Amino acid sequence: MDRSKIEALKNYYNDTLYNRTRVEQKIDDDYYEDQFDVSDIVLEPVTVMRTGKSRRLIDGPADHIITDNPQAFRRNLKDNKTEDEANSKIAELLNTSWLQVFKKQNPNVYKQFVKFLLLRGEAWIQMSHNPDFERGKSEDGLPIILRVPDPIVVFASPNESANGVPEHVILWYELTPFIINRSFPDFQPKLGDRDQKDTVSWMEFWSPEERYFEADGQTLLNDKNPYGFVPFVHKLSGLGTEDAQGRMERLIVGRLKFSRDTLRRETAIISSLDYTIHTFANRGFTVQGDDMHPVPPDFWEKFVVGVAMGNELPPGVTVTRSVDALPEQQLFQYLQTINRQLELEDPLTLEGVPVGSSARQQDMTTTSALRRYASIVENTEHAFSTAMGMGLKIADTVPKQLPTELKGINFKGNYEVKILLKAEDPTENDRKVTLGSRLYQNGEIDLETNHVKFQGFTKEQSRDIRKRRIVDNLLASPEALQIMGQSLLKETGLGGELGAGGIQFQPQPQSPSEQKRAQGEIKTSIGREMIDMSLANKGSRNPPVRV
After folding, report:
1. pLDDT tens digits, residue range 406-465?
2. Cα torsion for 241, 242, 247, 253, to the nearest 10°?
3. Rounded to an integer, what distance in angstroms lies between the CA atom of residue 9 and that of residue 172?
4. 3-class SS at 61?
5. 236 has which bridge partners?
6. Segment 230-257, tens digit of pLDDT
7. Of 450, 451, 430, 448, nearest to 439 (Cα)?
8. What contacts 71, CB < 8 A, 6 or more positions away?
9. Is the peptide bond before 297 cis (omega within 30 degrees of 0)?
10. Residues of the chain with pLDDT > 90: what percent?
């Protein structure tokens, strides 16, 4: 693409379309770094005391609403054995390799994505192939590279697909020549008076047809896009709204924007209280004499301060403390009111603070807190689902990038996968587990559906569980016990002493207490029939709702 057109697009996005958005994001960044200005409300000699609350508003939810066990699923195009085998291989590769490796990256890409959604109001994922990966020769690492760039350096077309893939993307930021030389060894920056450690301007342009890389005004790459699509995924926080003018600053909104004044008030009152208490704890002395008895010149040489120390004051001289009062109770109540307002944005349960008098009440509060971020989690799952599909397509498109585990699979254009990243909800999990077990016992669903949909297992884990259950049932059968018993007798040499018939092994009968528990409180057959009828179509108990 012509560089002048890229430059014109970049200038339009930076100076016009995203200008106000970037201003708001930089203001939020000052709050996140706890460097926002309070000089107009915290005056000398009070020292500004930072609390770090702004960072906790972003980092706290990101550490709790994303699971440590992401799962991937792939939808069948057709219900046949070939598709089932392909889906199993793809899901196993994603679950055991790709998703786990991405989780181990520094920083954790899942949590980093959520942090950008909360802080910037938007987040991006960039996918590319790994040039060091080659099937059959060098399969260390993954065939794809996943990055979560800072949205503040990404400028893209506002026209996007339903999956958040824009028409074109421009990345524009600063890099050191050392980093650029890793991918482009022949690059030589126009240093002039600058040092090699100084950064240079880096720009990328991606469209479905073309890609263009430039560093320090020098074109490094200008060729066809090898993927055939824009390898970027864009999602919003959902905290903004779209207006008729199409203003991006109304659509892209971080969670700190409408808490800035509250955070300023918290910093101001904390600073004032801290200064007052510190001054009281380290207060000085005021010494005053009367008209007839001035303060002696050597008074301070003889005056001592300490535990169990005493002083004899000269006649007419009085000593008082310079500060004799702590902050009023109303100031602490005001601080508590501010903290309460911030707790509505930052639920205490997400910081590990006990709430309520029972475990169930704690779980209900946690559930309520997690639901505040439902849109954030959904957008994150959609973004990584699209990104993993892009990764499979890149690996299938670029020569020798498809891992050995997937060699021979015909994707047939189906690169759609579903990624689950939502953290476990204790109350919801209990309800689903109970419902799944009841439906399975009533014969309304099969065991695999119970495992996958209600118990949280993958299809591969469900298959392994069913295999082990078959083995356990076989080993627990009387026939298996008989065979193992006869084999044991032969090994110990006791078979001849017991005769040709050997010994008959039977399962150990239940104890009287076990029989009583199994019998329950229902004594008659008609009673057992009635209880079975009442439980046959009974659904699961709905969780209590807070009022």
Report:
1. 888 888 888 999 998 877 666 677 788 889 888 988 888 998 888 888 887 877 788 888
2. 20
3. 12
4. helix
5. 122
6. 999 999 999 999 988 889 999 999 999 9
7. 450
8. 95, 99, 419, 420, 456, 458
9. no
10. 41
Distance in angstroms (rounded) separating the CA atoms of residues 141 and 135: 11
Beta strands 122-129 and 169-175, pairing class: unpaired
Q: For residues 457 and 204, give the distance between their C-alpha atoms in angstroms, rounded to a whole number.
A: 41
Tokens coding 247: 């203003």
Helix (H, G, I), strand (E, B) or coil at 99: helix
Of 174-188, 313-327, 355-369, highest mean pLDDT:
174-188
- 3-class state of residue 317 by DSSP: coil
Highest-scoring range by mean pLDDT, 15-19, 346-350, 403-407, 539-543:
15-19
How long is the chain?
Answer: 547
Q: Which residues pair with 72 in a beta bridge?
A: 419
Kindly state the tokens that stand for 519: 């019998």
Determine the Cα–Cα distance for residues 60 and 111; give it in Å rounded to an integer.
Answer: 10
Secondary structure (3-state) at 454: helix
In contact, 311 and 303? CB cutoff 8 Å:
yes
Q: Which residues contact 330 (CB under 8 A, 6 or more apart)?
A: none
For the packed helices 459-476 and 478-492, what is the interaxial angle rounded to 10 degrees?
Answer: 60
pLDDT at 389: 95
Beta strands in 27-186 (DSSP E): 66-74, 122-129, 144-147, 154-156, 169-175
Identify the helix (H) or strand (E) that includes residue 383.
helix 374-397
**Distance from C-alpha of 227 to C-alpha of 404, rounded to nearest angstrom:** 20
